[in-house]
Specification:
Layout: H1 2-14, E1 22-23, E2 31-34, E3 37-40, E4 46-47, E5 60-62, E6 67-69, H2 81-98, H3 108-119, H4 125-141, E7 155-165, E8 180-183, H5 187-196, E9 202-209, E10 215-220, E11 223-237, H6 238-241
Antiparallel strand pairs: 1-4, 2-3, 5-6, 7-11, 8-10, 9-10, 9-11
Protein name: PKDCC kinase
GO biological process, one term: skeletal system development
InterPro entries: FAM69_kinase_dom, PKDCC
Length: 246
């Protein structure tokens, strides 16, 4: 969410009515999240000036660990230097820390492609935004899910109830530090997750949703009783419920 929001912001800066805008003091502390969108807190160090040049050799974009040769345009400006400077700073301050983590395994190669392409400046902001939107579409639609045996049949489903949580366990990446709370595309995906975790005996699908509209599921290592809750559905492994009175 943070990286996509940043890319949308940089897309706007690259195509603003004032021209391509560069953020000269590009640091994480210069950004805040407001209602799920990343915003710049200080535009004092923003500029629409692009480096003047006479030849291509005048257009080297230098960073502490990398340098990129750019073209000198016919009007004597280094082509795309503001856009590329913003994008590489996004890569080194945000993408490298956030993109490799938390994504479903089948989407990680696509995020690695974005990471590598922006790190080498092979992608401009237009291509980067399209790549992010493709990953978001696959994630929201569930098209990233690989075909696998149907596992939900191994669970008892009880609507309008939830379990009294027994001994919980933690997992990564969880939306709660107190337990194992993950976003899912469907109950079938939740069943696959539960089956992949040795501690998991049941899970609850709530009405709470993430910014992409995916429901949250709480995975639990045990359960004791059932209590009414109109907003949840509890799924209990048949093997865990055998011998217990539902």
């Amino acid at each position: 969410q943070i990286c996509l929001s940043l890319v949308k912001l940089l897309f706007y800066l690259a195509h603003s009515p004032l021209g391509s805008i560069v953020l000269l003091d590009f640091q994480p502390r210069q950004f805040v999240m407001v209602d799920g969108n990343l915003k710049v807190t200080d535009m004092d160090d923003a500029s629409t000036e692009e480096l003047s040049c006479k030849e291509d050799n005048d257009c080297t974009l230098d960073f502490p660990t990398k340098s990129f040769p750019l073209k000198c345009s016919v009007v004597g400006k280094c082509e795309g230097i503001n856009e590329k400077k913003n994008l590489f700073n996004a890569y080194r301050y945000f993408f490298t820390y956030l993109l490799p983590h938390s994504a479903p395994p089948t989407l990680r190669p696509l995020l690695s492609d974005i990471l590598n392409a922006t790190g080498d400046l092979r992608y401009g902001i237009n291509e980067t935004l399209r790549a992010f939107e493709k990953v978001l579409h696959l994630y929201k639609s569930g098209l990233y899910l690989q075909k696998r045996p149907l596992l939900l049949k191994d669970y008892i489903s009880l609507k309008g109830f939830r379990t009294v949580e027994g001994e919980g366990y933690k997992c990564w990446p969880s939306y709660s530090h107190l337990g194992c709370l993950l976003s899912i595309h469907s109950a079938e995906e939740a069943a696959a997750i539960c089956n992949s975790q040795l501690q998991c005996q049941s899970f609850i699908i709530t009405q709470h949703r993430t910014w992409t509209g995916r429901p949250l599921a709480s995975f639990q290592s045990s359960w004791t009783d059932l209590i009414p809750d109109a907003n949840t559905v509890v799924y209990i492994k048949r093997s865990a419920s055998s011998g217990e009175r539902l």
